[in-house]
Design brief:
Strand content: under 5%
Order of helices and strands: HHHHHHHHHH
Low-confidence stretches: 4-13, 21-29
Number of helices: 10
Number of domains: 1
Mean pLDDT: 84
Pfam families: PAP2
Shape: globular
Domain Phosphatidic acid phosphatase type 2/haloperoxidase: 114-230
Largest sheet: none
Organism: Micromonospora acroterricola
Radius of gyration: 22 Å
Structural class: mainly alpha
Number of strands: 0
Protein name: PA-phosphatase
Transmembrane segments: 28-54, 91-109, 116-138, 158-180, 187-207, 219-236
Length: 263
């Protein structure tokens, strides 16, 4: 009968599930656990907000109404502001942003970065499908104003503009970070991503077609989707032997900038 060698790990000594999840060196260990936890923690406030909207929680309703009416009165007195918000909300609507994301995917495919292109596509598609589905499930009506400055069809929560702006900004940011270095262009890229998300959401409330909580819900859902898909992608990287990255610092695939077929 053969006996286990000195380096053979007996079944009784296999690391526990908990230890594997907290192992910083394991490809599916601590990095994936932290990323998955971050995505979950973003989903918690989104779920809570959705429940408050579904239950028509009076304090939230009053806050939404106050913000909506204040911005509506400002819009009625400032037609130039309305024109600017209309232009912004059309330029950065979901369909144009999806077109930009599609061009990015095509560019990545031409560079041989098939898995990175798949990550970008998955992020946009998953988030893009969740938005309309949640609108139907929640069934919240849009604001009703006596003298509206803009109109929009469909249900209100979450804001599709806010959601898709967050998805597109996250995808573009995490793909392009390796190309801008460590200098001023990195700051410019971050500022552009934040402005895209914030001003697009603001434009929907300023035009009176969404409540503030609709926009907040779109932002939270977008961040959760980007965090979840990024966690899955970075876990795959570690599993295949590629070096670990901090996505918000390095991007999701920094090696693609020098070796296009590496991801």
């Amino acid at each position: 009968m053969s006996t286990p060698g000195p380096h053979t790990l007996a079944p009784d000594h296999q690391p526990s599930w908990r230890r594997r999840r907290l192992d910083p060196e394991h490809s599916l260990g601590l990095p994936l656990t932290l990323a998955a936890t971050a995505a979950f923690l973003v989903l918690v406030p989104f779920a809570l907000l959705a429940l408050l909207v579904l239950g028509a929680w009076p304090p939230l309703h009053r806050l939404d109404a106050t913000i909506t009416h204040a911005l509506h009165h400002y819009a009625l007195d400032h037609p130039a502001w309305v024109a600017l918000m209309r232009v912004w909300t059309e330029v950065f609507a979901p369909m144009p942003l999806r077109a930009v994301a599609l061009l990015l995917v095509i560019w990545l495919l031409r560079r041989g970065a098939r898995r990175l292109a798949l990550w970008a596509t998955t992020t946009m598609v998953v988030g893009g499908l969740m938005g309309p589905l949640l609108k139907l499930l929640v069934g919240r009506d849009r604001p009703e104003l006596l003298d509206p400055v803009a109109r929009a069809a469909g249900y209100s929560f979450p804001s599709g503009h806010a959601l898709n702006a967050t998805l597109a900004a996250g995808v573009l940011l995490l793909v392009l970070l390796p190309y801008v270095g460590r200098g001023v262009w990195r700051v410019v890229l971050w500022v552009a991503a934040v402005l895209l998300v914030v001003v697009t959401g603001l434009s929907r409330v300023a035009l009176g077609v969404h409540f503030a909580s609709d926009v907040l819900g779109g932002w939270l859902l977008g961040v959760a989707v980007v965090a979840a898909t990024t966690a899955a992608f970075t876990s795959w990287r570690a599993h295949t032997g590629l070096r670990r990255v901090q996505p918000t610092r390095d991007g999701v695939a920094p090696e693609v900038e020098r070796h296009p077929g590496a991801a």
